């Protein structure tokens, strides 16, 4: 699902107060990190991921890998922070996706 500019703006406003949940460190984008991204998105639908200073990963490559393998939508890239969105697989956790579809 590609997001419209209105949906992106709404998600940016929702993500503003969030703290980064997942951190990519010197080991790079491992399977454990991908699993924790999946689990966090299932629980919340919108998360922040940060690249630590000791990582060799590029923010654009990380976003592309996560989009291809997990199916997330990258809402925004700011410096070393990624804002990611994906509709939850669990119906009881779908709070944001209902508002997104209404936009």
From TrEMBL:
The answer to whether UniProt assigns keyword RNA-binding to this entry is yes
Domain CRM residue range list: 1-97
The Gene Ontology terms for molecular function here are:
RNA binding
Q: List the signal peptide residues.
A: none
**Keyword field:** RNA-binding
Pfam families documented for this protein: CRS1_YhbY (PF01985)
Q: Which PANTHER family match?
A: RNA-BINDING PROTEIN YHBY (PTHR40065)
What is the recorded name of this protein? Ancient RNA-binding IF3-C fold protein
